[in-house]
Amino acid sequence: MLKIGVIGCGGMGRSHIDRITNRTQGAEVVAVSDVFEEGAKKAAAIAGEGTKIYNNGKDLINDPDVEAVLIVSPGFAHVDDLLEAIKLGKRVFCEKPLCTTAEDCKKVMDAEVASGKHLIQLGFMRRYYKGYTQIKDAIATGEYGEPLIMHCTHRNPEVPTSYDTPMAVTDTVIHEIDLCHWMVGEDYDSVQVIMPKDTKFTHSKLRDPQIMILRTKSGVTIDVECFVNCKFGYDINCEVVCEDGALKMGMPLAPEIRKSASLSREITTDCFVLFKDAYDEEIQNWVDCAAAGVIEGPNTWDGYLAEVTADALVKAQQTGAIEKVETVEKPEFYK
Ligand code: ISE
């Protein structure tokens, strides 16, 4: 049984605690921490009697009963806990982002490389969604030739009024940033953002929709429509155009309904409904891999690359120009 400590007991933290406690094989939550006592108590109650409660991440990481750490605190708080866990050689699952600056991501990456052990997995759960894994597996057969173009849409029915223009990158398209480079097995060269006409449902601090364009080092060109007040549903699509065929993600299974002279199929409005199995799968995979001492999912390099690419996209939102994605050389350790 892998004994896990969870840092951050908000909605996402509690959802992971429920997942580990009720749907994950070979793991249990033995400790939780949060600066807000009430949240920590609620979370401990999900994990069950005897769960230890801390008010800071450092004490939880240093608890000898905690073998592995799940970090679900706000992004700006990740860096210190990641460095502490690396110091103690404890395995970590860290929700996106790795850290909120490229500099902090690099610090964490350097510390992990120096430790000589792969310890950190990032919470980019879309890599576990069947729709995407089917396309990635199909590309890997070689039957369709090289990928050339990707068309993606990332639509949310609506977002809170606190959501602003940069968040379209840092909260939303951050998923495609990780997913697309993983699908084609390449890092990015440059990015650009085009702002179409705004929807009447947005406000002065949010350009919506946006079209983001990412080019990989070999020239694969990816367009992502990000539309977070689309109103009609949580609608995620992806098509990879290859030399010998085009691969489009299937719609999630839902019955086609014929009624009153029309044909319809439900689109969910909730990302946790669409990606429920993917979340379960990513945590189970992390637990299984922790037992075997490996990381199969997104790693610290992926977290660093996502942060640097996101910074370039936020810059491109302001300049309208093509912006370079400038990373350090990928360490041998992650190749
Ligand atoms: C949210 O944080 C997510 O991770 C969702 O997948 C994304 O669709 C949404 O736009 C984000 O705010």
Share of helix among residues? 25-40%
Q: Based on Cα principal axes, name the global outline.
A: globular
How many distinct beta strands? Answer: 15
Unreliable sequence segments: none
Average of pLDDT: 96
**Number of helical elements:** 10
Structural class category: alpha/beta
Strand content: 15-25%
Which ligands accompany this protein? (2R,3S,4s,5R,6S)-2,3,4,5,6-pentahydroxycyclohexanone
How does the major sheet shape up? 7 strands, mixed
Order of helices and strands: EHEHEHEHEHEHEHEEEEEEEHHHE
Strand order of the largest sheet: 12-11-7-10-9-8-15
Q: How would you describe what is shown here?
A:
The chain has 335 residues and is α/β, with parallel strands linked by helices. Helix content is 37%, strand content 24%. The protein has helices at residues 11-23, 37-47, 57-62, 78-88, 102-115, 130-140, 167-184, 271-274, 276-292, 300-319, and strands at 2-7, 27-33, 52-54, 68-71, 91-94, 120-122, 147-155, 188-194, 210-216, 221-227, 235-242, 245-248, 256-259, 262-265, 323-324. The strands form 3 sheets. It has a 7-stranded mixed sheet, covered by helices on one side. Helix 4 (78-88) runs parallel beside helix 5 (102-115) and helix 7 (167-184) crosses helix 10 (300-319). The structure holds (2R,3S,4s,5R,6S)-2,3,4,5,6-pentahydroxycyclohexanone. (2R,3S,4s,5R,6S)-2,3,4,5,6-pentahydroxycyclohexanone binds at residues 156, 171-172, 175, 228, 271.
